[in-house]
Amino acid sequence: MHQAFVELVVTGTGVLLVEEAPLGEPSAFRFAALPLRSAVLEEGPDGRLDTIYRQARLTPGQLRARFPGAPPELERAGSDATPLQLLEALWSERGGTGYAAILTADPGRPLLLAEGRFHESPCIAFRWLKVPGELYGRGPVMKALPDIRTANKVVELVLKNASIAATGIWQAEDDGVLNPATVKLVPGAIIPRAPGSSGLTPLAAPGNFDVSQLVLQDLRTRIRGALLADRLGAMQAGTMTATEVLERSAQTARLLGATYGRLQTELLTPLVTRCLGILGRRGEIPPVLLDGREVALRYESPLARIQGRADAANTLLFLQAVGQLGGEAARQVDAAAATRWLARTLGAPAEVLVPASTLSNRE
């Protein structure tokens, strides 16, 4: 899975293959990152990348092991180690995902090896950000690519300048004794010269005004900002307070809001749905249908809780204002209900609350 996220950050698009492992293995899942260069993606009617064409090269033995019900023509392909071209296609259908595997070793006579249907798509394609009118996504590296190229060019020029500073630029009189083509500027070298000749003399540079480090520092700062590597930044004075950390984390959440929502829709929800489907068919868990009504998927990551913290802060501000009003206004607030809502919003464990049945008995 790590490779899929690397491609997501670099190219803006990743493809993750989620397969069911045979019984008896430690895990029920097999994850594999598909190289983006071997896949062609298309958007469906809902705007998701649910049509995937994937190319692979497998030997005849690997093809027979993977497709045991393949037609007899595959048996005549031989058992040598020469890989054959395989094309796999996945497309969205009503209530599932269609699948077809075609052997394209002979473009004039393609051979259908298998076809079928999945309840959930085994290939999950997801994007970092999407520009209107484009199919593939754009990652943070693509945003910083102009600065990266400029920084590489500046480093190249700095290294060339360092080479000139180490070896120098020299001039010599062509007096028939000195042959510049045979001169080697290495430690301990002896360069002959004619009597009365100036020999080999260095050419003085007009000045030493070096701004490369200033340019590099500015470029590296912009690159780190584009890659979100400096969100917490350097501490200004001694230690960083908890409030400052929370505010900077909230700023990161605002910057990643659109990206996080897209990853939820295109990666996390299909991944959880695929894994639950595999476990349900294996009989390890009861069948679970994520329809948003009977069973709804809820994310509890730190980034997902940023909005909850903002809601809790607004609620606490309201309760403080009501408490200052006092009297009839304070009696309008159900303190127990407010406490339980804050516990759910901030992700507090249920053990810290008094059970509702105990409160009923007290009353």
Brief write-up:
The protein is an alpha+beta fold. It has helices at 2-11, 60-66, 140-143, 145-167, 212-226, 242-255, 257-281, 305-325, 327-330, 335-346, 356-362; strands at 13-20, 29-33, 39-42, 51-58, 84-93, 96-103, 111-118, 123-127, 170-172, 200-202.
Proportion of helical residues: 25-40%
Average pLDDT taken over every residue: 78
Number of strands: 10
Structural class: alpha+beta
The helix/strand series, from N terminus to C terminus, equals HEEEEHEEEEHHEEHHHHHHH
Low-confidence stretches: none
Notes on the protein architecture:
The chain has 363 residues and is of the alpha+beta class. The protein has 3 domains: 2-139, no CATH class; 145-168 and 212-226, no CATH class; 264-354, no CATH class. 39% of the residues lie in helices and 17% in strands. The protein has 11 helices and 10 strands. The strands form 3 sheets. Strands 3-4-5-6-7 form a 5-stranded antiparallel beta sheet. A 3-stranded antiparallel beta sheet has the order 2-1-8. Strands 9-10 form a two-stranded antiparallel ribbon. Helix 4 (145-167) packs antiparallel against helix 5 (212-226) and helix 6 (242-255) packs across helix 7 (257-281). The longest helix is centred in the C-terminal third of the chain and has 25 residues, at 257-281.
